[in-house]
Every structure is written in structure tokens, then in C-alpha cells.
Amino acid sequence: MATLSDIGVAAGINLLSAFIFFIAFAILRLQPFNDRVYFPKWYLKGLRSSPSRSGSHVKKFVNLDFRSYLRFLSWMPEALKMPELELIDHAGLDSAVYLRIYLIGLKIFVPITLLAWAILVPVNYTNKALELQLRNVTSSDIDKLSISNVPDGSDRFWTHIVMAYVFTFWTCFVLRKEYEKVANLRLQFLASEKRRPDQFTVLVRNVPPDIDESVSESVEHFFLVNHPNTYLTHQVVCNANKLAKLVEKRKSMQNWLDYYQLKYSRNNANRPLMKTGFLGLWGKQVDAIDHHIFEIEKLSNEIAEERERVLKDPKAIMPAAFVSFKSRWGAAVCAQTQQVRNPTSMLTEWAPEPRDVYWQNLAIPYVSISVRRLIMAVAFFFLTFFFIIPIASVQALATIEGLEKALPFLEPLIEIGFIKSVIQGFLPGIALKFFLIFLPTILMIMSKFEGFTSISSLERRSATRYYLFNVVNVFLGSVIAGSAMEQLNTFIKQSANEIPKTIGVAVPIRATFFITYIMVDGWAGIAAEILMLKPLIFYHLKNFFLVKTEKDREKAMDPGSLGFNTGEPRIQLYFLLGMVYATVTPVLLPFILVFFGLAYVVFRHQIINVYNQEYESAAAFWPDVHGRIIIALLVSHVTLIGLLSTKHLAQSAPLLVALAVLTIWFYTFCKARYEPAFVKYPLQEAMMKDTLDRTREPNFNLKPYLQNAYVHPIFKDNGDDDEEEKFSTKLEDESVLVPTKRQSRRNTPVPSKISGASSPSLPEVVLERSVP
Predict the structure, then answer these.
(1) Which sequence ranges are marked TM in the entry (predicted)?
(2) pLDDT beyond 80 at 1
């Protein structure tokens, strides 16, 4: 087991490595040729240009102003200067509220840490239970600061129960204040935001088939009848996935062609050659430039054919459409009400903003989504629980005893004091991180298979599953498997009725592992985030080999968005560890505080200067954040109940059960009070915004603004304005009312806008009505 000195050595090494990363970042960010890597957001906004330095050629690439290096930590106060409202205007509400997750961590854990160290640590340390009662159980110096060191049946446990109430009430107080604050920020953001297509648009899915009418005709007939005063226009969804793949393949070919042409321009003596086999490792050797020109022409022909097919083939039109309204109020009414008697038909929901739409999944038939989600739920269950086996095996190996048993010839080296401390402080955390490298990619693939239609919903689903995986495998798996492995000899030798007592003592012992994990994943990971080594290398490679124009350079330096699906579950794991160990092993809390403080400053800098958010959901993820912190509280209550039941304090169980019930009640209260602001758009707010718009711009024509907002981006890429116009014109032609072959005209009580005449089956009174 790791001792306090081992943890101290590991903490020192992690702090040193983080400091080295900060020094490296401070040096690299000051170099002119790295300016686009560390400040890309300002370039993309057009508010920053490449630093120009007069003088020698060296000054154009290297900063020779040595005084600037003395202020290597100046980026920290600069990151904290921007006010929150200015930050929202600069980076969006999603980014600003994401930072509030780190801030809420500090608000919760600073008072908890002070109280725990002032009250619980002295209460735990002044006992001798581990020395007197369980000499045969593995323990460490850190365990003497934990609840395990309090003897069975001691009245001192009431201190832990009281502190559990205090910690829970304080956490709930902070959570309610933050929920209210974020809800108000969201409503203010929506009220003050400029006009956006998604404010007027609803996504309609599962449009019922009609043998007499196309999807476009059915949609327009339905909304002209049922929303006659607010309906404006619509855009049917087409299946252009194959076309998108072809265009993406042509882009890749074009990049390689640019590379070979640039290579040839630098050396005209020899034409570049390549092999046509797998990864260019074998096959016929050909001229690389001619080969790529031929392949690009071939792909261009295929793209043209596929485009024509999408435009003409009715089977390429999916039973879904983006329906736009004349007002936000009209869109809100449609998005938040049931449209037809059949609750599975004509389903409406708020449309994602155009950049948030995940177009590939719009082509998935709605009827198959339930089956897909069931399959992925089963797959995730097996992925989660079968992953415990390798994690437990690696955790057993990544210890001094495990290494000495597996590799006995390394025992003399491992027993060296410093190396032993490094292994105990780093190896378990690094081993666990290694197993989690590919998990986010796997979970995102699963979310895409489920059929979610927006990038934000994909990330939220992936984040939910990542969090559940962390709870089961990283937390429960490490506690149960790790504790059982370490106490195996004790389990074998003692009687069955003593095993629960040993487990109750062994659970807090795993705090040493989580301390090392926080240092490896948290401290060093956050420091590596600011260094941005991977984007730095990739930018310079792209800049050297591929960049030919300023647009190419912008693409090369675009860092992407925050990555909510990976970042938020990691934060929530620290909330879970903090809540669980606050009353059990308070020595862990300062390590969590360092993480939250460091991460807040680093990500504030990154959001201001680096990340370019891919979409804006107006903080729609906050209910998930709130709910996961509540789960952390409940897990802490269950853990404390289990521990105290092994300490001959069964009478405490009703009090802790009551605390859990109060926590659940608090969650239901917040859900009913604040969550509607994140799910629904109040009609009052919509009407106020519409009235304000009509007052400011009474002659604004909304239809041209919304007409092409939800055209598939494949018809917008590469400046194909003619193709976009052709696609929209085709849909517009289909979108008007036409004479129908239906026997019943109850759903179309208006004359055709094409022929101007009415069907014979229409009553005469309908002829006098005009199209809304």
C-alpha cells in the first residue's frame, strides 16, 4: 500500500510535470510561428493577424524578447479578466456554462474541505482501530486519517453522520442556486439572441405515407390545414449519405493531389510516384499527380450522377421535414404539442440549429430507432460489465506485489525507494487511463447508431454512458476489485461472518488509488491540455505539406470544439469521488480542489483563445450535470450506510436513509421547477421576442431567410450555388399544393396553387377561400 511519503513523492512529481508543461506552453505560445495554434479563435473571428517582426529572418520565427519570458504565467490572470457576459458573447452560452461546472466544484468542495479537515480528520486520526483490531489487513498511513481508524460502535461516528447532513445540505443549496442562475442565463440568452433559423423551425418525423401524394405535398397540406396562420415553408429531408461519402472521398483525393503538386513544385527534377495498393505499400507504381487527377475526375462524375439521383428519385426523400413558421410562437406551439391522433405519427420536436444537425441520421427510418436503441442498450450493458475483468486484472498487476509476482527479476529494482514511490503513485492511474483511451470513440459510434439527429444530443448521450461506465468500472470496479485483490489472504483465513467487516474497512483504503488517479488524469492531464502538443504537431505538418491558400490555413488551425462527451463525464467522476470520500477519507479532497482550480483557469483560457464551438444548444446539457451530482450524493449516502453497518452502528441507517430520501425529493423539486426552461420554450417569451422583432424590422421578409437554411450541406459545399438553387427550386416546386388523387379532400380544403382550380370533390365553399 502507498504511504503518505509515497503519495507525497507522486504529488511532487505530478506538480513538477505540470509545471514543466506550463513552462513549455509559455515558451511555445510566444513564438510567432505558433501564434495560430494557441490563439486560433481570434484568427477565425478575423480579430488577429500573424505577428510581424522586423529585423533578421530569425525574429520572424523566434521571439527574442527575453523580458516576455519572465511573465510566463501572465496568461492565468488574463484568462480570468473577461467578465461572464462578455464571455457568453465571445464564446457562446454552452462554453460559459461548461466553465460553471468547474466553478460549482470549487463552490461545493472548498467549504467541505475546510470542515472535513477541521473536524473529521482529527476525529479519525486520534483513534487506533487499525492498529489494534485488524493487524492482518493491509493498510497505510493515509488510512489512519479515514473512517476506518474509528473503532466499532464508537460515538464518534455521529460526527460523520452530522457532517454528511451538512455536506448534503450545502451541496443542495449550491446546486439550487446554480440551477436557477443557469436557467435565467438560458432564458436571457434566448431573449437577447439574434434571429436564428432554429427559433422558427420544427423537425417533423414519421410523416405517414400516402400513395397519392409525395412527402412534401403531405407535409404542406397538413400544416396549411392545422397551422393555417403560422405555417411558412418547409424543407423535406433527403438521403444524401452516399453523396456525402463521395464528396468526402474527393476532398481527401484533392488534399493528396495538392500535396504531390506542392512536392513537385519544390523539386521539378522527378515526378512523384506512388503505388496503387493498400496504403501505398504495394501494387502498380504510377505517376501520383496523374493518378489523383484521374481519380478526382472519376469521382466528380460519380458525384454528378448521385446528385441527379437524389434530385429525381422519390425514394431519396425521407418521411421527415424541417417545417418553418412565420413566428417563434407558431413554432413553439407546433414543437410542444401532439399533431395527430396517432402519437407515433407526425412527431414534432425543436429543430437543431443548422450547424448542429447530424445529417446522416436523418436518413434512418424512425420505426427502426427503438430497435437500434434497444440493441445499443444491451451492447452497452455487456461492454460495461465485461470491461471489469481487464480493469481488475490490470489493477492487480499495477501494484508492487503484482509486479514482483509477474516479473520477479525486477524485484531489486522495484524495491528502490524512489522507484517504488513512482510506481505506486503513477502506475495504477496510467494503467486505468490506458484502458479508457478508445472508450469515448466507441460510445460515440454507439450513439450515432441509435439515430440521434443532432451533434449536441449525440454528445449528451455519449456523455451519459461515459459517466455510467465511470461509475461502474472506474469507481465501483476499482473499489471492489482492488480491495478484494488486496485483502484476498484475509478473506480466505477468516470466518464468513467477518468478511463484511473487512470489506467495510477495505473500501476507504482504495482512496490511495484514487489520489494517484486524480494526479495522473487530473493534474497532468489538464497541464497537457494547455500545451496542445497534438494540435501543434498536426498544424505544422499540414502547414508544410498541404496549405496553399489562407482558407487551407484556417482549416489547418481549426481546433474544433470542447468535446462535451469526454470532458463532462471526467468532471463528474471527481464530483463522485469528492462526495463519497468527504466523510470517509477527507485527505482526498485537497487533490480534487487543485484539479477544479487548475482546470477552471486552463479551460477558461482555452475557451477564450482556442476552441471554436461547433454548435450552440443554450446550455441544454445542464439538467444532466445537475442530475449526476445528485447521483454522486446518493452514492455517498449508500456508501456511508454500508460502512457504518460494519461498524456496529445499525441505528444510524434510518437517519442516512432519510437523508437519501430528502436528496431525491430535492432532485424532483428542481426537476419540476427549473428543467422546463431547458426542454420547452415559454409561449410568453416567444410572443415577446416576435413582437420586438416586428417592431424593429416591420418589413423583414422571413421566407428567403428560412428557405434554404436546412438544405443538406452537401449542396452548399464547394461553392455549388447552382446545385443548391436547383435543389431548393425542386423542393419548392414540390412544396406547393397540387391537384391530388385522394378520394377525400378533408385534409386539403384549399384550391391548388399550381392550377388555380379546385378538385371536383371539394365543396363549393372552399373555392372562395384563399391560400393562407
Answers:
(1) 6-28, 101-120, 157-176, 374-398, 418-445, 466-485, 505-533, 573-603, 652-669
(2) no
Dihedrals phi, psi of 349, to nearest 5 degrees: -150, 160
Q: What angle is formed at CA 353 by the lines to CA 348 and CA 359, rounded to 5 degrees? A: 75
pLDDT tens readout for residues 45-94: 888 877 655 555 556 667 666 777 777 778 888 889 999 999 999 999 99
Distance CA 538, CA 28 (A): 15
Global pTM value? 0.84
For residue 347, which phi and psi values (nearest 5 degrees)?
Answer: -75, 135
N- to C-terminal Cα separation, the chain? 77
CA dihedral over 330, 334, 337, 339, signed as positive or negative: positive
The separation between CA 744 and the C-alpha centre of its own chain, rounded to angstroms, equals: 49
CA distance 394 to 211: 60
Contact 515, 591 (CB under 8 A): yes
The span from the CA of 289 to the CA of 268, in Å, is: 13
Burial of 214 (0-12, 13-18, 19+ CB in 10 A): middle
- Closest-CA residue to 105 (of 634, 628, 636, 664): 628
- The cell for 705 is 431567410
- CA distances (Å), origin 762, targets 218, 229, 734, 768, 772: 17, 21, 21, 11, 17
Cell of 65: 524578447
d(CA 335, CA 201): 9
Residue 554 pLDDT exceeds 60: yes
Helix (H, G, I), strand (E, B) or coil at 53: coil
Give SS3 for 286: strand
Q: Could you give the count of Cα atoms lying within 13 Å of 4 in the half-sphere of its Cβ?
A: 7
Expressed in percent and rounded to 5, the helix, strand and coil fractions of the chain are: 70, 5, 25
Beta bridge partners of 275: 285
Q: What pLDDT, in 10s, does the model give residues 442-495?
A: 999 999 999 999 999 999 999 999 999 988 888 877 776 554 444 445 544 555
**How far, in Å, are 300, 347, 348 from residue 748 at the CA level?**
42, 20, 20
| Whole-angstrom distance, CA of residue 254 vs CA of residue 293 | 8
| Tens of pLDDT, residues 87-118 | 999 999 999 999 999 999 999 999 999 999 99
The span from the CA of 753 to the CA of 740, in Å, is: 12
Residue 712 is placed in which grid cell? 443538406
- CB distance 244 to 360 below 8 Å: yes
Tell me which residue has cell 438553387. 725
DSSP characters for 468-514? HHIIIIIIIIHHHHHHHHHTHHHHHHS-GGGHHHHHHHHHHHTHHHH
Q: Where are the alpha helices (DSSP H) in 241-368?
A: 241-266, 288-312, 328-335, 359-362
Sheet with strand 201-205: strands edge to edge? 231-238, 317-325, 201-205, 347-350
CB atoms within 10 A of CB 371: 10
C-alpha cell at 677: 426552461
- Map residue 232 onto helix, strand or coil: strand
Amino acid at 208: P
Q: For 465-504, b where at least 16 C-beta lie within 10 A, e where not — what string?
A: bbbbbbbebbbebbbbbbbebbbeebeeebeeeeeebbbb
Consecutive H or E run containing 202: strand 201-205
Element housing 696 (H / E): helix 683-696
Name the H helices within 193-235: 215-226
Handedness of CA 715, 716, 718, 720 (dihedral sign): positive
Distance CA 202, CA 453 (A): 13
Of all residues in the chain, what percent carry a pLDDT higher than 90? 34
Helix, strand, or coil here: 220? helix
Q: And the C-alpha cell for 598?
A: 487548475
Residues ≥6 apart with Cβ < 8 Å to 290: none
